[in-house]
Design brief:
single chain, about 170 residues, mainly alpha, globular
Length: about 170
């Protein structure tokens, strides 16, 4: 994962958890992933969202508002986004697939092909399949996707590196 971490930090998409630590094995949170997408998009946005747990002056506030406004995210309820909650692999796939569609990148609509495909939530299957078909997501050595497992910062960094290289972004 070291080349991916270097790639995303040099592009300013990620920062470390400190001046000297990236924390590759740490779980990515919902707020972190939305912030990376916001930086990746390169836009600025101010505004609010319906989420009572997202302050507009929080480090992820503008990113959440932008993502909500552009239908890239929904909350865990109508009024809660849970920005500090670790994001699962299937949730990340949905958010990333929505972002690619928003950016005008067409993904093939395919069903996922993993040993544990039946464990993937119905709402996420199309996104997981599309991200797999695009070569942006993969499973573990046993062929499992592990949809409900938390995704790490290193895994997201690797996805962004593959995404940039594949689509020449």
């Amino acid at each position: 994962y070291a080349p991916a971490v270097s790639y995303v930090t040099q592009r300013g998409l990620f920062s470390g958890i400190s001046e000297t630590q990236f924390a590759p094995g740490q779980s990515m949170t919902r707020g972190m992933l939305v912030s990376v997408l916001y930086r990746f998009n390169g836009t600025s946005h101010t505004g609010g969202s319906p989420f009572t747990d997202v302050s507009s002056d929080a480090w992820y506030g503008n990113a959440v508002s932008w993502a909500y406004t552009n239908n890239l995210v929904s909350g865990i309820s109508e009024t809660s986004f849970a920005p500090n909650t670790p994001i699962t692999r299937e949730q990340a796939a949905v958010m990333l697939a929505r972002y690619l569609k928003f950016s005008g990148i067409a993904l093939d609509s395919k069903m996922p092909d993993f040993q544990d495909t039946t464990s993937i939530s119905t709402y996420a299957k199309e996104s997981v399949g599309a991200m797999q078909a695009a070569g942006l997501l993969s499973g573990d050595d046993a062929g499992n996707f592990r949809p409900h497992a938390q995704i790490t910062r290193a895994e997201i960094a690797s996805i962004f590196m593959r995404l940039c290289q594949k689509y020449d972004i």
